[in-house]
């Protein structure tokens, strides 16, 4: 329950880094290891972002193809209505372009 007399007291932060010989042992800080970890983390992040962008592009392509098929089916089933809509849009766009 209470600390024994032979246990190390760590009142000073340097005491935590003292080895048995009494010299200060700083933790190894290898800059290259940190850089490798950073590069690997960045590569994983970019790969993940690329995969999600590819999925989104595939989804948008699929949605565009589906919309094109729906419009083509509507034109095949109702050609007169589609022609009237196209002519009306052409007239409106022509009037707007004239201004």
Protein described:
The protein is an all-alpha fold. The protein has a domain at 35-98. Helix content is 68%, strand content 0%. It has helices at 31-77, 79-98.
Number of H/I helices: 2
* N→C terminal distance: 90 Å
Overall pLDDT level: 78
Give the helices and strands as they follow along the chain: HH
Q: Taking Cα atoms only, what radius of gyration do you get, to the nearest Å?
A: 35 Å
General shape: elongated
Helix content: 55-70%
Helix/strand structural class: mainly alpha
What characterizes the major β-sheet? none
Number of strands: 0
Uncertain stretches: none
How much of the sequence is in beta strands? under 5%
Task: Summarize the helices and strands and which ones pair or pack.
Layout: H1 31-77, H2 79-98
Helix pairs in contact: 1-2
What is shown here, in short?
The protein is mainly alpha-helical and 99 residues long. Helix content is 68%, strand content 0%.
List keywords for this structure.
99 residues, mainly alpha, 2 helices, 68% helix
């Amino acid at each position: 329950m209470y600390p024994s007399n032979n246990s190390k007291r760590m009142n000073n932060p340097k005491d935590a880094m003292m080895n048995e010989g009494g010299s200060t042992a700083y933790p190894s800080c290898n800059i290259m290891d940190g850089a490798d970890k950073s590069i690997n983390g960045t590569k994983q992040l970019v790969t993940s972002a690329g995969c999600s962008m590819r999925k989104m592009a595939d989804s948008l392509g699929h949605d565009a193809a589906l919309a094109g098929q729906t419009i083509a089916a509507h034109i095949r089933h109702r050609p007169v209505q589609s022609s009237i809509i196209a002519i009306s849009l052409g007239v409106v766009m022509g009037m707007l372009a004239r201004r």
